[in-house]
């Protein structure tokens, strides 16, 4: 069961996020999925998740999401990831900057019958805002 869950998560990230086939998310995610750490304004369920992914793809049309490391145990999969893209549209209230970004994070997914039932994403939003020029890098 565990390797299948990890494979499902990798297929979701490749097909839905990187390739931008947002509507195919239903193959990998339950309709009543719960985002434990939602984006600002993100509501519950699959449709809201798809809206977030559409917003990311609109803001970063060349977005590439890469799973760099995974640990799976039982019904949970933890994935360390990195995504890259060029900021060409408004994202989290920040108008397009045309800057290329590289953002890291970790997501913990719980799956039921091979589909994501709940998820928790921890992303370096602070680093993203520095790369976009919204925040000045801290001086040490």
Structure at a glance:
This protein is an alpha+beta fold and 140 residues long.
What do these coordinates show?
By secondary structure, this protein is of the alpha+beta class. It has a single domain (2-131), classed as Nuclear Transport Factor 2, Chain: A, CATH 3.10.450. It has helices at 2-18, 45-59, 125-131; strands at 29-35, 64-73, 76-86, 100-112, 115-123. The chain is globular.
CATH T-level topology: Nuclear Transport Factor 2, Chain: A
Strand % is 35-45%
Helix content estimate = 25-40%
Largest sheet: 5 strands, mixed
Q: Give the overall form.
A: globular
Q: How many angstroms does the end-to-end distance come to?
A: 46 Å
Based on DSSP secondary structure assignment, what is the total number of beta strands? 5
Radius of gyration: 15 Å
Helix-strand category = alpha+beta
Count of structural domains: 1
CATH class: Alpha Beta
One letter per element, helices H and strands E, the order comes to HEHEEEEH
Supply the number of helical segments: 3
* CATH architecture term: Roll
Across the major sheet, the strand order is 1-5-4-3-2
Average pLDDT confidence is 94
Low confidence ranges? none
How does the SSE layout of this entry go?
Blueprint: H1 2-18, E1 29-35, H2 45-59, E2 64-73, E3 76-86, E4 100-112, E5 115-123, H3 125-131
Parallel strand pairs: 1-5
Antiparallel strand pairs: 2-3, 3-4, 4-5
Q: Any descriptors?
A:
140 residues, 5-stranded mixed sheet, 36% strand
């Amino acid at each position: 069961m565990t390797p299948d869950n990890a494979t499902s998560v990798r297929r979701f990230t490749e097909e839905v996020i990187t390739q931008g086939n947002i509507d195919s998310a239903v193959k990998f995610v339950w309709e009543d999925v719960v985002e434990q750490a939602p984006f600002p304004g993100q509501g519950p369920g699959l449709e809201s998740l798809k809206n977030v992914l559409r917003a990311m793809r609109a803001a970063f049309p060349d977005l590439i999401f890469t799973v760099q490391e995974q640990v799976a145990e039982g019904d949970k999969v933890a994935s360390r990831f990195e995504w890259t893209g060029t900021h060409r549209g408004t994202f989290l209230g920040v108008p397009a900057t045309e800057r290329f970004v590289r953002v890291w994070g970790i997501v913990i997914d719980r799956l039921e019958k091979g589909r994501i039932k709940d998820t928790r994403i921890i992303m370096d939003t602070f680093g993203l805002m520095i790369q976009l020029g919204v925040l000045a890098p801290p001086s040490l």
